[in-house]
């Protein structure tokens, strides 16, 4: 009888959370691992009723660097994580970053509870590379979705986040059964970069789903009319993609200079939906623009392609179908977790999955 590792996955979990943690969890469970999900996004009950109102007073006074809840919430999460470790007794603590934890605290957990491996995966943007380097040294093994920001000396390995979650993202309708309710959608939280692009597209039938858009556009009625919801996840998101002609992807960081594509690069084509995303060398490692997806280098090109593909249904649907077939040829999260566990020394997966 084989002894499969017990793993705690620390990331955001919940109905309104980025599904990366859930995708990794399902994959690990499919590999016969016993998995406990720890929601690192949880805050103390005092956050809502005390810390947040007090912080707001400071911020209104121009003191935005003051956050009286940061250390308290960190200690609150660390107490909850220790309770989870004490009860579950994991072989491996897998922390997707997310919220991080103090290095000394991680070493304490490892020694106190006999954790074999503490593993980190940097899935945040490049803005915080200095923080990544300072955190990575406290882990037994550390991965990053970007190829940049570290050297061999830092003992960080490249592990892209993008993979196919074929359990969640899938076509719901095919052929003549497919009916559209949306022309163009953008799904994602507000950033200034995204705002600048969307502001140039107010003449197009775009629906926006994501947090902060209404708050950042109090007087911008053209943008406000586009906003349909402050978030959409899970099966509702899959249904939205399935009923959409064109989905736009805009990364939070500059993809022309950095690797580390976001998850929508696979999620959208996996639903059989036509994807238009920023052009980059990274995207061309996976797809052929004009054949399996479309790309844009600037606003003018994006406008031209939106106008063209909204009018040319057959060509748009042909490319969307090619994109769907392409993502099926890529690895799933089960493949990704298999590779990671092999790297970490859990060699039983080579025999169980046939991975070399």
Task: Compile the SSE list and pairings.
Blueprint: E1 6-11, H1 20-30, E2 34-39, H2 46-60, H3 70-88, E3 92-97, H4 103-113, E4 117-122, H5 129-136, E5 141-144, E6 156-158, E7 182-187, H6 192-198, E8 206-209, H7 213-216, H8 221-226, E9 227-229, H9 234-242, E10 244-249, H10 264-270, E11 274-278, H11 281-284, E12 294-296, H12 299-311, H13 313-328, H14 333-343, H15 348-353
Parallel strand pairs: 1-2, 1-3, 3-4, 4-5, 5-6, 7-8, 7-10, 8-9, 10-11, 11-12
Write up what this structure looks like.
It contains 15 helices and twelve strands. The longest helix has 19 residues, at 70-88. The strands form two sheets. Strands 2-1-3-4-5-6 form a six-stranded parallel β-sheet, with helices on both faces. Strands 9-8-7-10-11-12 form a six-stranded parallel β-sheet, sandwiched between helices. The chain has two domains: 6-163 and 331-353, Rossmann fold (3-Layer(aba) Sandwich), CATH 3.40.50; 175-328, Glycogen Phosphorylase B (Rossmann fold, 3-Layer(aba) Sandwich), CATH 3.40.50.2000. It is of the alpha/beta class and 356 residues long.
């Amino acid at each position: 009888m084989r002894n499969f590792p017990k793993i705690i996955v620390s990331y955001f979990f919940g109905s309104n959370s980025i599904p990366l943690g859930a995708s990794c969890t399902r994959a690990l469970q499919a590999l016969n691992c016993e998995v406990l999900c720890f929601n690192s996004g949880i805050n103390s009950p005092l956050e809502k009723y005390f810390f947040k109102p007090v912080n707001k007073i400071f911020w209104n006074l121009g003191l935005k660097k003051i956050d009286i809840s940061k250390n308290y919430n960190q200690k609150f999460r660390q107490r909850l994580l220790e309770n989870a470790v004490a009860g579950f007794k994991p072989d491996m603590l897998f922390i997707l970053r997310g919220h991080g934890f103090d290095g000394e605290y991680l070493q304490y957990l490892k020694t106190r509870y006999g954790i074999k491996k503490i593993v980190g995966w940097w899935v945040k943007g490049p803005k915080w590379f200095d923080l990544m380097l300072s955190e990575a040294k406290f882990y037994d093994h550390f991965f990053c979705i970007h190829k940049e920001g570290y050297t061999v000396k830092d003992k960080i390995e490249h592990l892209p986040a993008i993979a196919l979650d074929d359990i969640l993202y899938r076509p719901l309708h095919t052929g003549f059964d497919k009916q559209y309710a949306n022309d163009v959608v953008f799904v994602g939280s507000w950033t200034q970069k995204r705002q600048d692009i969307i502001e140039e597209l107010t003449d197009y039938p775009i629906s926006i789903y994501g947090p902060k858009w209404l708050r950042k556009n109090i007087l911008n009625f053209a943008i406000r009319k586009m906003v349909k919801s402050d978030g959409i996840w899970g099966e509702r998101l899959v249904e939205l993609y399935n009923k959409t002609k064109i989905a736009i992807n805009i990364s939070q960081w500059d993809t022309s200079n950095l690797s580390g594509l976001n998850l929508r690069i696979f999620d959208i084509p996996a639903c059989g939906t036509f994807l238009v995303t920023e052009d980059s060398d990274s995207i061309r490692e996976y797809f052929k623009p004009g054949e399996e997806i479309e790309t844009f280098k600037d606003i003018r090109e994006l406008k031209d392609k939106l106008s063209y593909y909204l009018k040319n249904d057959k060509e748009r649907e042909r490319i969307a179908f090619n994109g769907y077939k392409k993502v099926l040829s890529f690895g799933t999260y089960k493949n990704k977790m298999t590779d990671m566990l092999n790297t970490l020394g859990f060699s039983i997966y080579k025999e169980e999955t046939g991975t070399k």
